[in-house]
Amino acid sequence: MSSETAFHPVELLRWDGIRSWNAYGVNINESVVKNTVQLFETLGLKDAGYEYISIDDGWSAFERTPDGFLQANSTRFPDGMANLADYVHSKGLKIGLYGDSGKLTCAFHPGSSGYEERDALTYAEWGIDYLKYDNCGGFASMVEAPEVRFGAMNDALKLSGRDISYAVCEWGYQFPWHWGGNIGHSYRMAGDITASFINETGCACKTAYCLNTGYAGCSVVTNIKKMREISQYQTPGHWADMDGLEIGNINMTIYQQQTHFTFWAALKSPLIISTDLATLSHESTALLTNKDIIALNQDSLGKVVNYVETASTEGSIQVWAGEIQDGHVVLLFNEKSFQQTYKVSFNSLGLNIAGLKGVKELWSGKSYGKSHTIAAKLAPYQTLVFKLAM
Ligand code: GAL
Question: Given the DSSP bridges, would you call strands 383-389 and 327-334 parallel, antiparallel or unpaired?
């Protein structure tokens, strides 16, 4: 399918939400889901536009039913998935589940290889709205090309009769930016993110040239670095998923959290909160519900920011710029553990700013009039986000 004929509209960026894996691992159950639904309302996440409550690996029994159907783990989900889906829907939210293209999931629950149509029908019958589909499963299934394995479930979901958003989770192996977006609504662009802001050894990404290597130990910064090369493949409906947000899972400074959230938003990754909401600080909640940054993620133009190599200094300052529906956005990221001042000249970034109406930094709300040049002070690991209204 060419990008012109792909069936995914820009609106499908609206499957921001929460997913269980990074906070709970396989220890997920019905009451965690119900509490999360409750907290979605009380913390203002639902009002901010987060919509999908997704349950990752660990939800199913270790065996299929005797006649070969997937079934929920009856101890953890005593009411079953269809009832849980009804509950989530009754609160005006949507529900996601996790499956796998191999014989087994990564936590050794049944995978969907050979059962794609049957499992897609099961998801549809239960009322599932979103499926994350993984890449584990052993030799027998891994010998098939990922397009085939992930394509089979895409076809099955389309036949299921229910509109189910499809998140390909193939860890950034085998260049999913070339095929993943045509098969799913998103594709994971790297191995698993861990609760780490910066990690120069995990995920094998020390320089810009770190594309297809490394599975485990990705950090916030490694995934940002990987996007320097592949942001060019982001087009509406072909979204790279930078993995769950680690905000709330480790001690990050407020500036590190802002950097994390800014890049996920401006690079059009789905915004998937991945923490225990009951322990999320007020500061982090406010950050995750920042309307200006969420608006960048959901911008109707559907364009990403791209790395501006000529204006950046490797390992020190990253400059990114892109177009939004009513202007441009410029990100300045201080990759160092000390404060730096950076003089940015918007004219030199290849942006057409004739007719500039005003410049505003989105995290502080500070206005810079019609300045074309700004000497920006950046705290350690801080990202400033300049919106250039046109
Ligand atoms: C990994 C996947 C993670 C998580 C985990 C569950 O393969 O990348 O995001 O879903 O499996 O076992």
Answer: antiparallel
In this structure, the answer to whether residues 86 and 116 fall within a common structural domain is yes
SS3 244: coil
In short, whether 136's Cβ falls inside 6 Å of ligand 1 is yes
User: Residue 150: in which H helix or E strand, if any?
Assistant: helix 146-159
* Domain closes at, from 297, 320, 346: 297
207: enclosing H helix or E strand = none
Model pTM above 0.90: yes
What is the distance between the alpha carbons of residues 271 and 312, in angstroms, rounded to a whole number? 26
* pLDDT for position 34: 98
- Closest to 164 measured CA to CA, from 19, 275, 58, 15: 15
| DSSP H stretches of helix in 57-101 | 80-90
Q: What does DSSP say about strands 306-307 and 272-273: parallel, antiparallel, or unpaired?
A: unpaired
Residue-wise pLDDT for 106-135, tens only, equals 999 999 999 999 999 999 999 999 999 999
Residue 41 CB contacts under 8 Å (≥ 6 apart), including other chains: 91
Question: 339 CA distance to ligand 1 centroid (A)?
Answer: 36
What atom in ligand 1 is closest to the CA of residue 106? 12
| 186 contacts 52 by C-beta, under 8 angstroms | no
**Ranges of the chain with pLDDT below 70:** 1-14, 138-139, 201-216
User: What tokens were used for 173?
Assistant: 């192996």
- φ/ψ (deg, to 5) at 324: -125, 170
* CA diameter of the chain: 69
Ligand 1 pocket check for 332: Cβ under 6 Å:
no
Nearest Cα to Cα of residue 156 among 108, 123, 132, 127: 123
25: domain range?
Answer: 17-297
Close Cβ partners of 194 (under 8 Å, ≥ 6 residues apart): 202, 216, 217, 218, 219, 246
What is the distance between the alpha carbons of residues 186 and 378, in angstroms, rounded to a whole number? 32
Distance 345 CA to ligand 1 centre (A): 42
Residues 335 and 315 in one domain: yes
Tokens of 205: 């990404």
Residues recognised as catalytic: 134, 192
CA of 216 to the centre of ligand 1 (A): 10
Residue nearest to atom 8 of ligand 1 (CA): 192
Q: What domain count does the chain have?
A: 2
